Amino acid sequence: MRRQKQLLSFFVFFVFSLLSDATAASSVDACDPRSLPDRLTLRPDQLTVLISGYSERRLLLLHSLAAGYASLPSVAAVLILWGNPSTPSHVLSPLSSSSSKVTVVRDPSPSLNARFLPRAAIRTRAVAVCDDDVEVDPRSLAWAFAVWRSHEHSLVGFFARSHDLDLARRTWIYTIHPDRHSIVLTKFMILKTDYLHRYSCWTRLAEARGLVDRQRNCEDILMNFVVAMAMAAEGREGPVTVLVEGRRVRDWGDPRNSGNSNSSSSTDGGDGDGVKEQERETEITRVGLSSRGDHRKRRGDCIREFHRMLRVMPLRYSYGKVVEGLGEQGLCLKGGKLVFCDRD
């Protein structure tokens, strides 16, 4: 039994070594300035969408998302960063057929650090980093991009979380506050392309990137550290994180989707399409990192470890949300219902 445990430990160490070596090799190539376009030529009026993919269960949704983003005039290119080396090439070929703007990039390892690699195909000043289970409508994406253009040094997104200090246990925790946030999630975040280079090529982050590989989690938290540290070093006073309000932002992978509960089956009225929709949600959610029971604890541990490794806690709170328009809050009686007076 002891011998089996030793062999298992060696195997795990060997796999992580291969993973780290492959990621390191990719980072070295990506950090060579000769392999990247001149920063002065990057387009300011469009962005590049980087969608991370791994599970073949999400291919149909991924195909739809990529085609939708590629159809938008504000999107210069869509790069599908495929991190599952075992997927056959013919399975992925339909993804590129949806649009000439869509390209599948097969990364040599499943490292989450790969989603922040600088890439020669990125020809825009901004990138939208997103998951393969989040659907953002065109108007919300355009609004988020417009907000980013007025906050080019910040992280802009639709999903936010917070760090906090547990005084009883004297440790950092990962949580949700109703009135403040300090972390934008990679469910969908817009950031300037320069930050990809900082994340991947800054030697000070080597140990932290190693933690991301071991945990297979927390790359978004580390990017928030990177942006906060960069803004502090440059003396920038603006918000590190900017939360924007979307009109229709669908998170297929959220464990709270109603299709994952038994009680929801009574709401479809026996409709076969409703059952299929629930099955689709369940399959998509099942492969998500956030479905792990210890997900929040793992991310709290990452915050603590990043603080220890980098010897700084740069995360700072932002308050509120940027909305597209402000309307009157008065209520009027229309058609027998109380609604906002400025609503048709």
TrEMBL record:
Signal peptide stretch: 1-25
Protein name in the entry: Glycosyltransferase family protein 64 C3
Domain Glycosyl transferase residues, every copy: 47-322
GO CC terms, sorted: membrane
Domain of life: Eukaryota
Matches recorded under InterPro entries: GT64 (IPR053318), GT64_dom (IPR015338), Nucleotide-diphossugar_trans (IPR029044)
Region (Disordered): 251-296
Family: Belongs to the glycosyltransferase 64 family.
Biased amino acid composition, Basic and acidic residues: 273-284
Keyword Disulfide bond appears in the UniProt entry: yes
Gene: LOC105050884
